[in-house]
Design a protein that fits this description.
Blueprint: H1 2-13, H2 15-34, H3 44-51, H4 58-66, H5 70-73, H6 82-97, H7 99-105, H8 109-138, H9 151-178, H10 183-193, H11 196-208, H12 214-237, E1 239-246, E2 249-251, E3 254-256, E4 260-266, H13 273-291, H14 295-305, H15 310-331, H16 334-343, E5 346-347, H17 355-388, H18 393-396, H19 401-424, E6 445-446
Antiparallel strand pairs: 1-4, 1-5, 2-3, 4-6
Helix pairs in contact: 2-9, 2-10, 6-7, 6-8, 7-8, 8-9, 9-10, 10-19, 11-12, 12-19, 13-14, 13-15, 15-17, 16-17
C-alpha cells in the first residue's frame, strides 16, 4: 500500500502527466454526460421500457455495450464511435488492396494525416447512411417512443446524430493529443466499463437471493474472472522474438550496427478483429430468420439464433480461427519484413537474407497463430460457459469476448504510457520488477 501511495504521489508531482490525466478525465466526463442527453422529441421512458428485453441481445447488445448504453437510450451520442471504427476498418482494408492507400501508409507523418482526413470524411458518410436505419429500427418502431415523427424531426435527428458522432470522434482525438492513452480506444473502454457496476449489482442480487449460492459462489466467480483476465493479458502480450543481427559499419572513427535486435511476432497479431468479423457473419442467420416467412427455414436456422447454444458457439469458434489466419495473413507481410531487414543490413542468424528469411518468418507466424487462434476462440465463447454456470447475462459478457480483450488491451497501453512518463523523469515504474508491456507492435525493438 505504501508503494502505491508513493507511486500516486510521483504521478501527481509530474505536471505534464497530471494535466494529461485531468484532461482525459474531463473529456470522459463530457462524453458520459452527453450519452444521457436524449434526442429531442423522444420519450426516453417509453423507449427504455420497449428496449429492456432487446438491449442486451445480438448486434444491438454488442453496439450498446460499446456505446455505454447510449444506443438503447436514443442519445445524441447514440451511434457513438462505431461509424469511425467502421471507417477505420474500411481504410485499413483499402490500404491492403489498393496501391494508392498503401503508398500513403508508407509516407510517414504526412501520409498518416491524409489517411486520418479520409477516415473522417468516410465517417460522416457512414454515419449519414446509418442514422435513418438506426432511427427506424431502434426508435420510431417502438410504440410511444416518438409522438410526432415528422419529416422535420427526421432531418433534425439525423443532423444531431451525425454531429454527435463527429463530436465523439473529436473527443477521442483530443484525448490522444492532450490526454493519456489512445482516445478512441479509451472511449470504447469507458462505454464498456460503464455497464460493469450495473452488471455486478445485478449479479450480486441474484446470488444473495433465493438459491443463488450466496457470497461463496460470488467469490468463486470473481476468482474465475481474475484468472480469465490473466489469460487475456497473456494472449494480448504473448510474442515470439526472432533475433536479428545487423552488420557492422565503420564510418570515420565510429562504428555503427553490430547490435542484436529482435522482431516481436505477436501470438495474436489480429487482435479482436477476428471476433468482430465472425460476429458479423453470425448475425446473418438472425437477419434471415427475421425476413423469412418459411417455417422450415426458421427451424433450420433456429440453432444459430441461440447465442449460448453449442451449434452457434462451435461455428463461431471455427470462424474466429479462420479469420485469425486470414487477418494475420493480410496484416503481417513476411516478404516486406525480410526486404526491410535486407535493405538495412540485417539478417536472422543462420538464415540467408531475402526469400529464405521471408519463408522463415512465415513458418513461425503459422506456428504461433494456431495456438493464438485457439486461445482467442476460447475467450470469445467463454460468456456462453458463464451463462451455463447461471451467471447473469450482463455480467457474463465480461468473462470473455470483444469486451474483455478491449479492456485488457487499453488498460495495458494506458498504464504503459503512465509508466513511461515516470521513468523519463527518473521515478520508479508502476511495478517493482520489470516494466508494463502494452500491445506489442510488429516493429523491431532493441533487445
Amino acid at each position: 500500500m505504501k508503494n502505491l501511495i508513493n507511486t500516486l504521489k510521483n504521478i501527481w508531482k509530474i505536471e505534464d502527466l497530471r494535466v494529461r490525466i485531468l484532461n482525459t478525465l474531463g473529456f470522459i466526463l463530457i462524453y458520459r454526460l452527453g450519452s444521457y442527453v436524449v434526442l429531442p422529441g423522444v420519450n426516453s421512458d417509453e423507449l427504455m421500457a420497449a428496449n429492456s428485453k432487446t438491449a442486451h441481445e445480438g448486434i444491438v447488445g454488442l453496439i450498446n455495450i460499446f456505446a455505454g448504453g447510449a444506443f438503447s437510450r436514443a442519445s445524441i451520442f447514440g451511434l457513438g464511435i462505431m461509424p469511425y471504427i467502421s471507417a477505420s476498418i474500411v481504410v485499413q482494408l483499402l490500404g491492403m488492396a489498393l496501391p494508392y492507400f498503401r503508398k500513403m501508409q508508407m509516407e510517414g507523418e504526412s501520409g498518416r494525416k491524409k489517411i486520418n482526413q479520409i477516415t473522417r470524411f468516410l465517417t460522416v458518410i457512414i454515419t449519414v447512411f446509418q442514422c435513418p436505419g438506426y432511427i427506424a429500427t431502434q426508435i420510431t418502431n417502438k410504440a410511444g417512443a416518438v409522438s410526432d415523427p415528422s419529416t422535420f424531426w427526421w432531418i433534425q435527428s439525423i443532423l444531431i446524430l451525425v454531429t454527435g458522432t463527429m463530436f465523439v470522434m473529436w473527443l477521442g482525438e483530443k484525448i490522444t493529443d492532450k490526454g493519456i492513452g489512445n482516445g478512441i480506444s479509451i472511449i470504447i473502454m469507458i462505454g464498456i466499463i460503464a455497464r460493469l457496476p450495473f452488471a455486478f449489482v445485478s449479479e450480486f442480487g441474484s446470488r444473495v437471493s433465493g438459491e443463488g449460492g450466496g457470497l461463496i459462489m460470488l467469490l468463486i466467480e470473481m476468482v474465475l474472472l481474475l484468472l480469465i483476465v490473466v489469460g487475456s493479458i497473456m494472449l494480448v502480450q504473448g510474442t515470439r522474438k526472432i533475433p536479428v543481427q545487423f552488420a557492422k559499419k565503420i564510418v570515420g572513427n565510429k562504428q555503427f550496427g553490430g547490435v542484436r535486435q529482435y522482431i516481436p511476432l505477436k501470438v495474436n497479431a489480429a487482435g479482436v478483429m477476428p471476433i468482430i468479423f465472425a460476429q458479423a457473419i453470425m448475425f446473418i442467420p438472425l437477419t434471415l430468420v427475421g425476413f423469412s416467412q418459411s417455417a422450415s427455414m426458421q427451424n433450420f436456422l433456429a440453432p444459430l439464433s441461440n447465442h449460448y447454444g453449442f451449434v452457434y458457439n462451435f461455428i463461431f469458434a471455427l470462424l474466429i480461427i479462420v479469420f485469425t489466419y486470414f487477418y494475420t495473413a493480410i496484416t503481417v507481410n513476411p516478404n516486406q519484413m525480410a526486404e526491410d531487414m535486407k535493405r538495412n543490413g540485417g539478417f536472422v542468424p543462420g538464415v540467408q537474407p531475402g526469400k529464405q528469411t521471408a519463408e522463415f518468418i512465415d513458418t513461425i507466424m503459422s506456428r504461433i497463430t494456431f495456438p493464438g487462434s485457439l486461445f482467442l476462440a476460447l475467450i470469445a465463447v467463454l460468456p456462453a460457459f458463464a451463462i451455463k454456470l447461471n451467471i447473469q447475462q450482463e455480467f457474463a459478457q465480461f468473462y470473455g469476448g470483444t469486451s474483455l480483450l478491449i479492456l485488457v488491451g487499453v488498460v495495458l497501453d494506458t498504464l504503459q504510457q503512465i509508466e513511461s512518463h515516470l521513468l523519463n523523469r527518473h521515478y520508479d515504474g508502476l511495478m517493482k520488477t520489470g516494466r508494463i508491456k502494452g500491445r506489442t507492435s510488429m516493429s523491431m525493438t532493441t533487445a
